[in-house]
Amino acid sequence: MYDVVVEHKPLRMTSALVQIAAALMEQPEAKHWGYDLAKRAGVNSNALYGVLKRLHEREWLRDGWEPNPDGKGPARRYYEITPLGLARLGALLAHASSDRRFARLNLKPGMAQ
Amino acid sequence: MNDVLDLVRHYWHVAVVCVLGGPPMLLGFLPTFVLRLGLLLYPKEHERREEFLAEFKHVPWRERPKWVAGMLPHCLFEGPPARLEQRRQTRLERLIKKVTIVSLSVLVDSELLHVSRAENIQRDITSKDRLDTPPFELFEMRPPAKRHIWPFRRFWKDI
Lengths: 113, 159
Known about the structure:
The complex is a heterodimer of chains A (113) and B (159). Chain A has 113 residues and is of the alpha+beta class. Helices cover 42% and strands 12% of the residues of chain A. Chain A contains 4 helices and 3 strands. A 3-stranded antiparallel sheet of chain A has the order 1-3-2. Chain B has helices spanning 2-10, 12-39, 47-56, 64-109, 151-158; strands at residues 113-116, 138-141. In chain B, strands 1-2 form a two-stranded antiparallel ribbon. Chain B is 64% helix and 5% strand. The A-B interface holds A 33-36, 44-46, 49-50, 53, 68, 73-77 and B 47-48, 50-51, 53-55, 57-59, 67, 70-71, 73-74, 78.
């Protein structure tokens, strides 16, 4: 009936956020799993889930549950980039690549597109 | 030195148990136990419980203690606020329920609503409490009596 507009605080640019954004943008159309993403981004799992939560709240990511292939155990949660997230994460990486704080991360210029 | 050797000689079976049981304990039981303890901080139906457990199965054995140690602060800082939020939500729902019941009873008292027992309910299926009260009552709208169209009008006249 009513559209609820939630105002989020702007994301704080941290190296964990930039690393995760870079790992997500390496495969923008793929499904991303928590542990694999943490490995590829090179961040602690604790930092990963905090960032994923913030990105999910802003609808830059959408999530889903995939049942275990062998049918045992709980379903696994995956994250995918939304069209909004694709644009925002690209802009975030473009901004980070020109920021001296993140120079050591060796961000590729093509990643932002 | 001899005392130490004597100690080892007499308690060698303790050392064997520690050497053989330590790794399975450290890599198998403890991480699972600690993770499940941490997940208890979340409310029952919270998605993180299932998510972390499923993710834990995909972490290699050697990395599990470190992974669980990394997840504990997350559980500590995300679980209790989620519980508080859920409690707040439950209280709000209860309040809405109470307000609805009170407003319904006001409408019944002011004769705008008529209460009748629901006759078409199969009594053998529906449950009753120990006082043999039927499970619910049927409220139906009733046209207001002619003497007062609005319930407060009578009240207004009295004033």
